[in-house]
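Dear support,

Our group has been running a series of protein-ligand predictions, and this particular one with magnesium ion is the one our PI (initials K.S.) wants archived with full inputs and outputs. We had some confusion internally about which version of the output was final, so please treat the block below as the authoritative record. The input we submitted was:
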Amino acid sequence: MSPHPPPEKRPTDTPPVLKVTDLDVHYGPRRRRRRALHGVSLAVSPGETVGVIGETGSGKSTLARTVLGLVPASAGSVLVDGDEVTSYGRRQLRDLRRRGVLQYVFQDPLRSLDPDLTVAASLAEPLLIQGVRPDEAAARVRTFLARVRLGEDLLDRLPGELSGGQRQRVAVARALVTEPRLVILDEPVSALDSANRVQVLKILKELRADGTALVFISHDLGSVVGIADRIAVLYRGELVETGAARDVVSTPRHPYTRLLVRSAPTLRAAPAHRAERAALRALLHT
Ligand code: ADP
Ligand code: MG
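Confirmed final output from the archive:
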């Protein structure tokens, strides 16, 4: 066994695909301005999955919408693949999505999917925009449909003719089919029943291409730990803690993070269980 630690999965010198610096976002007219985000800084490396957690109203969706250019920043900077999106117009942002740099999945798949496009058209569209030949796109759509465990009988359906779980699988397939650089997922499993939640999380893990970074937003720590490399904790519009997922769960530093970990029942047992096993191993080997 080599005494050296294994090499980093991702070299740290690659530029981040998302770099948020000192971001402030306000809502409302001047006199009744309310702050939703304050001094938020976060960098996401290519291929990395970062979970953003926080309670309702902590500013998670505001962060997602600002990165997608749907909400203007009042201060700070948001670089997506090196481009400053806070100064972008709608056309440039659409172009960023069209070039396959940036994709998104919302909690409600009816918001991520065009209600007038069939499943086949919805999945083929981002590929065709990138100039993939129609026959190639059709083949790739079928492959992806199988990978999200949906039957080809759904290809001609409209989003309104699918179940919630099926719809979210289509939305996930559409977001990942072009292997984009960055996907923003805002509560992608929160509206699903537990069986569908497990399935969609599994699909996300399987389908994410090596070079695709995910920002996975959830109010539920339990949904995020299995998929995230790092976790960032938002509390009242500020990032109070960012760290490797296992460190945040095993040794949360901020009181709010501690509260989140304590109130996630499936996590509470895990560290104790590990400690028990470690103690047992130590006994057996000494
Ligand atoms: P989360 O997604 O974590 O629940 P949001 O980003 O949706 O939080 O909201 C953060 C804060 O900004 C909340 O206080 C919310 O009421 C406020 N807010 C969100 N959207 C708007 C809006 N369109 N207009 C005014 N206030 C908003
Ligand atoms: Mg939200």
